Amino acid sequence: MKAVIPAAGLGTRFLPYTKAMPKEMIPIVDKPAIQFVVEEAVASGMREILIVTGRSKRAIEDHFDANLELDEYLAKSSRPGALDDLEALMKAARIMYVRQSSPRGLGDAVLRAADFVADEPFGLLLGDDITVNPPCAEVLRAVHEKLGRSVIAVQEVPHDQIGRYGMAVGKEVEPGVIRLDDLVEKPSREEARSNLATIGRYILTPEIFSSLRKTGEGRGGEIQLTDGIRSLMEKEAVYGVLYRGRRYDVGDKVGWLTANLELAMERDDLRPGLKEFLDRFRKRS
């Protein structure tokens, strides 16, 4: 199975950092966010990966490319293995790129992958979400292989977060699997009919492309993936899968800070110093 990673968004929530730097390159401890997403795809058996880029996104391609000058420097330094994980990932994955010339919505970014995907189901992983224990794409793939239909990751969210996400409405057909009746893009708390938020992981059948073309431009003159999936529901069943692992919304500043803190605390080389700082911080406050 192939994977598609849209990375053409403007990243306005992290301005001024993202004025010249791709939001997907924002660091989580010492790795850019998009590297976590590529690692998840590979861990889920998706080794052919298409990254949909846009203007000012060259740093993404450079990150997943060789740098002989840096390699030579590291070989002579005290940290010769600093890039071992990245180099192993680059050997495991075949990464390609296509450009979205203007930000015309997530649906348009997905349409750019039609030739790459051809007529096979594919994973769609958005860069704003990092998932661990287990990788969300792996969970979705298992359900897709059982049902043979498009599946979307959902999570239960508290009432005060409902307006921040697209919400899924449907009926549970087996534990943790919901046959979807509707998707509502960021409803108000009063309008919401469930507490199941869609998160940035999908396994989609290739029929999504004809649904997106049929849908055309929606809100803001953009092609919305949500509209395309709603159109797809008219032709075939689409399922939501309740993801129970850990997810970090790194497109949100608090979510990004939380990811940095929790993932740093899991590392033996960082935990002692970070714990000491947090103890001092708690006493100060």
What can you tell me about this protein's structure?
By secondary structure, this protein is of the alpha/beta class. 35% of the residues lie in helices and 25% in strands. The chain has a 5-stranded mixed barrel. Strands 2-3 form a two-stranded antiparallel ribbon. Helix 8 (207-215) packs across helix 9. The relative contact order is 0.16.
Order of helix and strand elements from N to C terminus? EEEHEHHHEHHEEHEEEEHHEEHH
Instruction: Return Rg in Å.
Output: 20 Å
CATH topology name, in short, is: Spore Coat Polysaccharide Biosynthesis Protein SpsA, Chain A
Quantity of strands, as a count: 13
- Sketch the major β-sheet: 5 strands, mixed, barrel
| Count of discrete domains | 1
Write a concise synopsis of the structure shown.
35% of the residues lie in helices and 25% in strands.
Q: How do the helices and strands line up, and which of them pair or pack?
A:
Elements: E1 2-6, E2 27-28, E3 31-32, H1 33-43, E4 48-53, H2 58-63, H3 68-75, H4 84-92, E5 94-99, H5 106-111, H6 114-117, E6 122-125, E7 129-132, H7 136-147, E8 150-156, E9 167-174, E10 177-184, E11 196-204, H8 207-215, H9 225-233, E12 238-242, E13 246-249, H10 253-265, H11 271-284
Parallel strand pairs: 1-4, 1-6, 4-5, 8-12
Antiparallel strand pairs: 2-3, 6-11, 7-13, 8-11, 9-10, 9-11, 10-12
Helix pairs in contact: 8-9
